[in-house]
Write a structure and sequence with these properties.
By secondary structure, this protein is mainly alpha-helical. Strands 2-1-3 form a three-stranded antiparallel beta sheet. A two-stranded antiparallel ribbon has the order 4-5. Helix 4 packs antiparallel against helix 5.
Length: 217
């Protein structure tokens, strides 16, 4: 007969939603990917040398928010989507995953034109500073930050796919007990953070062994 003390650790090790692809790890990775884009877009993407004139002018630094303003909004959306993953069910996760893929693709899509034509991306800034929308090709110097933003966008897409794949194991059956009144209850051993929050919202003590109104998965 198999010793139950030996089978319990093995069962715990195979519990879905644990390990490297646990919800917390995937969410944190998604936040980091969005954070990479958010950091990159606030840095200097293009440095424009001043034209040769009789007046001494300083070079102009064009940030990602000036060269590709949409990237900033997309980074914020990616952050919100990653946070929303912590409280959503499987259907909503598919919607969020699709949005994140679009966001990551959008980050790449808005960054590529800056790399291909920094003059056009910097035109509004150069017009404001020098009165000229376009300068000579040699006047534009690209930094590494647009490439970092593209990598962040790709990571957002990857983490969206990982979330959809790993998320299938996040939903696991909980042991519900039947209260004398006929209501299903969740025991302290089977509660998660959302269940505890629901208990607080309902005015229940989550440390009580008889918590009602728990969230069903």
């Amino acid at each position: 007969m198999t010793d139950s003390s030996q089978t319990e650790p093995a069962a715990a090790a195979k519990t879905p939603g644990t390990g490297l692809l646990a919800k917390r790890n995937v969410v944190v990775a998604g936040l980091l990917a969005a954070g990479v884009v958010l950091l990159a877009v606030t840095r200097t993407w293009v440095t424009v040398a001043a034209p040769t004139t009789g007046v001494e002018l300083d070079a102009v630094s064009v940030s990602g928010t000036d060269a590709a303003s949409a990237v900033l909004a997309l980074a914020v959306v990616a952050l919100v989507c990653s946070l929303a993953t912590t409280i959503t069910g499987p259907v909503a996760r598919w919607i969020i995953g699709a949005i994140q893929v679009l966001v990551g693709t959008g980050v790449i899509g808005f960054t590529v034109p800056v790399l291909g034509d920094p003059a056009t991306a910097s035109s509004s800034k150069t017009a404001e500073s020098f009165g000229l929308e376009r300068l000579g090709i040699g006047a534009y110097e690209l930094s590494l930050w647009p490439w970092v933003a593209m990598i962040g966008g790709a990571l957002i897409c990857v983490m969206a796919v990982v979330m959809l794949v790993a998320g299938r194991n996040w939903k696991h059956a909980k042991r519900f007990e039947r209260h004398s009144s006929g209501h299903a209850v969740v025991t302290p051993e089977t509660m998660d953070d959302v269940d505890r929050w629901d208990a607080f919202t309902d005015g229940d003590d989550p440390t009580d062994g008889d918590v009602r109104g728990a969230r069903f998965h």
